[in-house]
Amino acid sequence: MSIFVNASTRLVVQGITGRDGSFHSKQMIAYGTNVVAGVTPGKGGQVFEGKVPVFDTVANAVRETGANTSVIYVPPMLAAGAIAEAADAGVSLIVCITEGVPVIDMTRVMPFVREKGARLIGPNCPGLITPGVAKVGIIPGPICLPGRVGLVSRSGTLTYEVVNQLTRNGIGQSTCVGIGGDPIIGTNFIDVLAAFEADPDTDAIVMMGEIGGTDEQKAAEFVSRHVTKPVVGFIAGQTAPPGRRMGHAGAIVSGSSGTAAEKIAAFKAAGYGIMERPADVVGLIKQRLKK
Amino acid sequence: MNLHEYQARELLKAAGVPMFDGGVAATPAEAEAIAARLGGTVVVKAQVHAGGRGKAGGVKLAATPAEARDHASRILGMTIKGLIVQKVLVVPAAEIASESYVGLIMDRESQRPLFMVSPAGGIDIEEVAAKTPEKIHRLAVDPRYGLLGHQALGLALTLYKNFDQVKTAARIMEQLYRVFVANGASLAEINPLATTPDGKVIALDAKISIDDNELDRRADLAALRDETAEAPSEVEARRANLTFIKLEGNVGCVVNGAGLAMATMDLVKYYGGEPANFLDIGGSSNPEKVVNALKIITADPAVKVILFNIFGGITRTDDVANGIVTATRQFKVEVPIVIRLTGTNEQEAVKILQGVGMKALNDMDEAVKQAVALAKEAK
Question: CA–CA separation, B135 vs B240, rounded Å?
Fold first, then answer.
């Protein structure tokens, strides 16, 4: 078992003929993901890599192939439209990799996604992977190992760093989810923590947060009330100056709010194992799984 | 991206928000001419992206055009929180009966534009929020419908009793909302929204920040960027498509990915060093980006060592290695370089670096420790 993606994932790739979309589609197929369709308006009827049919619309792709999950690699100004299209076509899980989506677009598309009953992950995220089963997005397959630790993170390469630490030490993962670094995202820490708590094949959870906003604090409160599995956490950006956007649009300390210190304090209060540095994940997880 | 006050005023004025006529001056003579045109007492205000302008001496009253000129000559060129004042705004000085706060922010929690209004305006709204939160009224606007008439009226009623003032304030809320949405703002505030002794409602000061992601489709807004208000290295980095923020330390950092870049800075601090910068070369692995990154970092004389931390995913580590080699051929890098790379095409990368006598480490902690030690030796 796992969360969100598994053996019954049937994936449609929006933007499959683009530079990023085609590169990562090949990688996803090579990993064993069931990529059933691609969408590029105007290129309907083409076949990608000799086996994946391309459609003009997501609705056509869903009707013809039964796709239930979508991954989006379209340019930022088209991303919100692509999300809405997927939700309207009845796709239940939408993963938006695109970085640089205007936030005002996200305020308009989020109510639509909810109305349609879909789950959005991202935007500006690396996607997710259930090691050995399926990957949706751009997390490198070779650094992952099937196992029983769930990981949720706001960043990309920092996630890879921690996954790599776990894998090198023989600790496998159930699912790794990158929720994205933007101020408005479809799936937050609490959604993923709740899913890991309910997943019988996840024994412990790693949560990688960063400065900006209050999602980590709220997640910590949720953990103290509703999560029985051990959680270890990290906050990036302890040395970040206030008022500056640290790469991710959402990674900004506004006034005195959203600092690493307040987030770490919330983690401690909720009984998290605190990672002072990424490499601490191994020792903390081993120690907590023994208990 | 933060707009200057005078730029924010122009957007609001175009939307119909009542404001005094004013003018922007880059020289004392221009300030004098604006003051003469306006007549009466004026305020000369420094245009910099920093709070506390008044306390720093950047906001002055002038009774005559000559006095406006004198103030402008002192304020222009003044440094406020490290930023040099290039322009002043000259506006009529108002007699004020009351000061309110009207702000709109992009709220992460409700995922909507959120109004915050308070009859306690004029001062730091964060302080009001912390000490007397009951004095701030909040309303999250559903972007599908926009700010509805009764909602605007409800907000305005928290500010004024006189119904003419209430109606004017409600209209201002609607205008502010339209400016916020039409320009993809992350913040738009009027502070203070004032009343004059004869009962007029008027916006005296305005602040607008634009979502950086909006700028790619809005050349008109991107053109409002004032590069003189930023560190030159950050301007250069943006032109090279790098995300760069200068810090005070001496360990220069080149990292792929924002989260890993922050974690690398934190680890430098953890091992007793101080990072000189935040630098994210992004996901694509163009060797040219690495060359530009090295140029920008080595231009900072405080940097004593350069630390690469590259986790190859989409980024190919051999591209990064090629970039390092190209850069060191193009110009002499005077400080030691510590390289950590792992992931996609790692073996090729190691070979490329070995070919020019450079070493690559595999472990992040090891690399950071080495870099911190080298920075300390160099002191």
Answer: 46
The CATH number assigned to the domain holding A181 equals: 3.40.50.261
CB A4 within 8 A of CB A201: no
Do the beta carbons of residue A275 and residue A284 sit within 8 Å? yes
Q: What is the model's pLDDT at position B230?
A: 78
Does the CB of A238 have a partner CB in chain B at under 8 Å?
A: yes
- Within 8 A of A211 by CB-CB distance, chain B residues are 262
**Interface membership of B323 toward A (CB under 8 Å):** no
Question: What span, in angstroms and rounded, lies between the C-alpha atoms of B146 and B151?
Answer: 10
Q: Which is catalytic among the residues B6, B101, B160, B177?
A: B101
For B168-192, the pLDDT digits (tens) are 999 999 999 999 999 999 999 999 9
Distance between A218 CA and the closest CA of chain B, angstroms = 10
Whole-number average pLDDT of chain B: 93
- pLDDT at position B227: 86
Q: What is the mean pLDDT of residues B265-276?
A: 97
Q: What are the beta bridge partners of residue A119? A: A93
- CA-CA distance, A245 to A251, in Å (whole number)? 6
B6 is catalytic: no
Mutation target for A interface from B187, B266, B310, B346: give the one with most A CBs within 10 A.
B266
Which is it for strands A52-55 and A47-48: parallel, antiparallel or unpaired?
antiparallel
Q: Is position A90 within any domain?
A: yes
Tokens of B328: 């060191």
Say if A25 falls within a structural domain. yes
Amino acid B212: pLDDT: 92
CA contacts within 13 A on the Cβ side of A7 = 2
Q: Read off the pLDDT of each residue in B62-71 and give the average, rounded to a whole number.
A: 96
In this structure, are A153 and A263 located in the same domain? yes
Residue A173 CB neighbour total at 10 angstroms: 25
Give the end of a domain, one of A89, A121, A153: A121
**What domain range is A63 assigned to?**
11-121
| Integer Cα distance of B342 and B312 in angstroms | 6
Chain B: residue whose CA lies nearest to A142: B343
Domains and CATH numbers, chain B: 21-92 (3.30.1490.20), 98-222 (3.30.470.20), 231-378 (3.40.50.261)
Helices and strands: H and E segment counts in chain A: 9, 14
The residues, any chain, with a CB within 8 Å of residue B55's CB and separated by 6 or more, are none
List the CATH number of the domain containing A79.
3.40.50.720
Distance from CA of A145 to the nearest CA of B (A): 15
Cis, bond preceding A123 (omega within 30 deg of 0): yes
Q: Convert the pLDDT of each residue in B320-362 to its tens digit.
A: 999 999 999 998 889 999 999 998 889 999 999 999 999 999 9
Are the Cβ atoms of A107 and B275 closer than 8 angstroms? no
Radius of gyration of chain B (CA): 26
